[in-house]
């Protein structure tokens, strides 16, 4: 098919744990976003029938319209993905994945008679097991049969898409989300054998924030995830050097003071004398090994554990600097310096507020922290950047991939790349 | 009832195979707002407007009176504005065999169908249909439903087999290398496509040896 066809009909689909981002090449700089969830309505309910619903699953912006205040949501409102993975035998979850895929494709369905289906590029977590690829291709086959909306499809790992969107052909992408973090070296292709996975993400930062809130007398708030997240975002600081930062804050707590007003309430969080704990939040994300965290583990805060998911072991306590070194050292030696020179931080767990100028001696941004962690490992001459527009990078990478890869590059299960045709 | 709504309802019912009967006398004290015929059944419809919901007792009274239509019509519909759907318990309607339709400015929808009541024969102009006809029709419906189920199962199985074959196939890239079409990015395309070294790299996928892969 000609380049002219692809200029109109490439379609990107980023299956994130929380959000599904999708759109054709013609939708501009930003994709459409819906929550990655589905609602199974009660077919006996008059309300469902009243709105003429015979659908088995509701997805997209319409979901809130169908939620009823009194119902038990846990069995009807389903989030199919956990840490980028859909359980193999979870039928409801896979039905939702199919429905959101169909929803996305339908949303951008062209009216032109020349349209013979999209060049669909989907993206999954780099740790997604093979069965997820198989299931997703099966879904696309079904959708293609039903509607003719897919001409060819492929699936690429999210770190590759991030690298493509950032115009960086040799780099290390660190994708850190709510549940886990993946370190993936890229050199024109993802170097799959070098991927390092860490069982630590934004959710762990929430956990330590909750402990801090409990210690500070805000036990009630500590149980409400939304409040904990708000506190984390407002209070959390990444220390340049933890012990020095704690000492300075203990000597002069007012300098590091922060107030967090919870919107819609009269509650205000203030840490008074214990402003030094703000640095624990940032440090814990990057390196949970400092002895100061032992007391939290002893008191019951879950210690991040090593877990095995399929063939991949997710390390619990590995610091981010160590994870980069481990990943890079699995790559050919001549490639390693090039990889260190471009490190990309991606994902919500790397989105931190810029620390105030008055604290710049003690609080830093994620890129600087990463450089310091690598320096401790003896790695200098590194360049670390946080991705701009982290929510859209993967989708953009998918669109670029679909635009450029030739038609005759067929899918191969060894290399896990290529087009699968549904004509 | 305003004429516009009446016309819309007539159109909708006609699309479902039901013709409106004008000036039909039910012989009842309670007047049905509209009457239809589908060739086999006489159908009454009581249409409620927003004003009917201002007085709850009057509304309930009207609903209960409408139940009496089941003695003179094969099917009875109640039509109400969609915004009031939440105050109606559909199960009660269904228990009494009433059908429910909802309408708003743009749409008319049948929420559930009424039961069919056997009554005295309708007006002489309507054809007489023997009871055996309906029994045979039900049997045919069951058979069609069973066939649909079988077709659906076969289709699913075929889909699985097709995909299995596709996924097992390893198509070697045996086509000769073409002269590469230089990737040109139109001005209309998004900015993230421009000045991207990946375009050149990706355009050569399958045409060069991979240096660094798993």
Question: How would you portray this structure in words?
Answer:
The complex is a heterodimer of chains A (423) and B (214). Chain A has 423 residues and is α/β, with parallel strands linked by helices. Chain A is built from 16 helices and 20 strands. In chain A, 35% of the residues lie in helices and 19% in strands. In chain A, strands 8, 9, 10, 11, 15, 16, 17 and 19 form an eight-stranded mixed sheet that branches. In chain A, a hairpin with a 3-residue loop joins strand 1 (10-15) and strand 2. In chain A, helix 7 (202-215) packs antiparallel against helix 11 (278-286) and helix 13 crosses helix 15 (366-376). Chain A is globular. Chain B is an alpha/beta fold and 214 residues long. Chain B has helices at residues 3-15, 56-67, 90-95, 131-168, 197-203, and strands at 19-20, 34-37, 42-47, 75-81, 99-103, 108-112. Chain B has a six-stranded mixed sheet with strand order 1-2-3-4-5-6, sandwiched between helices. In chain B, strand 3, helix 2 and strand 4 (75-81) form a beta-alpha-beta unit. Chain B is elongated and about 85 Å long. Mean pLDDT of chain B is 78; it is low at 170-181. At the A-B interface, helix 2, helix 5, helix 6, strand 10 and helix 16 of A face strand 6, helix 4 and helix 5 of B.
The amount of beta strand of chain B, in percent, is 5-15%
Number of helices of chain B: 5
Query: What is the number of strand segments of chain A?
Result: 20
What's the count of strands of chain B?
6
Uncertain regions spanning at least 5 consecutive residues of chain A: none
Helix content of chain B: 25-40%
Shape of chain B: elongated
Spatial arrangement of strands, main beta sheet of chain B: 1-2-3-4-5-6
How far apart are the termini of chain B?
73 Å
Poorly predicted runs of chain B are 170-181
What's the helical proportion of residues of chain A?
A: 25-40%
**What oligomeric state do the depicted chains represent?**
heterodimer
Strand portion of chain A, in percent?
15-25%
One letter per element, helices H and strands E, the order of chain B comes to HEEEHEHEEHH
Continuous helix count of chain A: 16
């Amino acid at each position: 098919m000609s380049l002219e066809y692809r200029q109109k009909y490439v379609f990107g689909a980023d299956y994130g744990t929380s959000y599904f981002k999708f759109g054709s090449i013609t939708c501009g700089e930003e994709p459409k976003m819906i929550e990655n969830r589905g609602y199974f309505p009660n077919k006996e309910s008059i309300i469902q029938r009243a709105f003429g619903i015979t659908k088995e699953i509701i997805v997209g912006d319409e979901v809130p319209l169908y939620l009823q205040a009194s119902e038990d949501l846990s069995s009807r409102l389903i989030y199919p993905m956990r840490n980028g993975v859909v359980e193999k035998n979870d039928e409801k979850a896979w039905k939702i994945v199919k429905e959101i895929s169909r929803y996305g494709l339908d949303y951008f369905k062209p009216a032109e008679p020349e349209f013979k289906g999209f060049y669909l590029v989907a993206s999954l977590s780099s740790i997604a097991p093979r069965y997820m690829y198989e299931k997703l291709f099966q879904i696309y086959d079904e959708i293609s049969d039903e509607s003719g909306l897919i001409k060819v499809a492929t699936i690429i790992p999210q770190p590759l898409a991030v690298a493509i969107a950032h115009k960086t052909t040799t780099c290390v992408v660190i994708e850190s989300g709510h549940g886990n973090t993946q370190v993936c070296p890229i050199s024109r292709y993802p170097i799959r054998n070098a991927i390092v996975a860490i069982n630590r993400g934004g959710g762990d930062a929430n956990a330590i924030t909750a402990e801090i809130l409990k210690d500070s007398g805000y036990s009630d708030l500590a149980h409400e995830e939304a409040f904990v997240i708000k506190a984390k975002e407002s209070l959390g600081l990444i220390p340049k050097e933890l012990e020095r930062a704690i000492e300075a804050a203990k000597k002069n707590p007012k300098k590091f003071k922060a107030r967090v007003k919870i919107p819609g309430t009269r509650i205000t969080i203030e840490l008074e004398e214990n402003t030094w704990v703000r640095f624990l939040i940032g440090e814990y994300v990057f390196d949970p090994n400092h002895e100061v965290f032992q007391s939290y583990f002893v008191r019951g805060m879950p210690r991040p554990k090593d877990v095995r998911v399929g063939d991949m072991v997710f390390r619990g306590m590995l610091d981010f600097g160590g994870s980069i070194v481990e990943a890079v050292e699995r790559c050919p030696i001549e490639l390693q310096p090039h990889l260190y020179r471009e490190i990309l931080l991606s994902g919500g767990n790397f989105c931190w507020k810029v620390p105030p100028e008055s604290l710049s001696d003690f609080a830093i941004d994620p890129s600087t922290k990463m450089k310091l962690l690598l320096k401790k490992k003896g790695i200098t001459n590194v360049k670390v950047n946080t991705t701009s527009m982290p929510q859209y990078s993967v989708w953009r990478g998918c669109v670029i991939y679909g635009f450029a890869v030739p038609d005759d590059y067929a899918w191969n299960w060894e290399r896990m790349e290529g087009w699968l045709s549904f004509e | 009832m305003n004429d516009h709504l009446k016309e819309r309802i007539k159109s909708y019912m006609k699309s479902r195979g039901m013709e409106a009967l004008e000036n039909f006398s039910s012989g009842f004290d309670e007047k049905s707002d509209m009457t239809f015929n589908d060739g086999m059944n006489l159908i009454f419809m009581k249409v409620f407007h927003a004003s009917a919901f201002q007085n709850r007792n009057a509304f309930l009274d009207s609903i209960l009176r409408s139940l009496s239509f089941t003695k003179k019509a094969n099917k009875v519909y109640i039509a109400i504005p969609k915004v009031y759907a939440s105050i109606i318990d559909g199960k009660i309607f269904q228990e009494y065999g009433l059908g429910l339709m909802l309408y708003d400015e743009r749409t008319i929808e049948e929420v559930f169908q009424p039961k069919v009541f056997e009554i005295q024969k309708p007006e002489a102009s309507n054809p007489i249909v023997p009871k055996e006809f309906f029994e045979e029709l039900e049997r045919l419906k069951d058979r069609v439903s069973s066939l649909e189920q079988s077709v659906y199962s076969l289709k699913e199985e075929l889909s699985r087999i097709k995909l299995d074959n596709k996924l097992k196939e390893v198509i070697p890239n045996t086509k000769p290398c073409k002269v590469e079409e230089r990737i040109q990015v139109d001005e209309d395309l998004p900015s993230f496509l421009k000045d991207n070294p990946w375009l050149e790299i990706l355009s050569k996928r399958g045409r060069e040896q991979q240096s660094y892969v798993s």
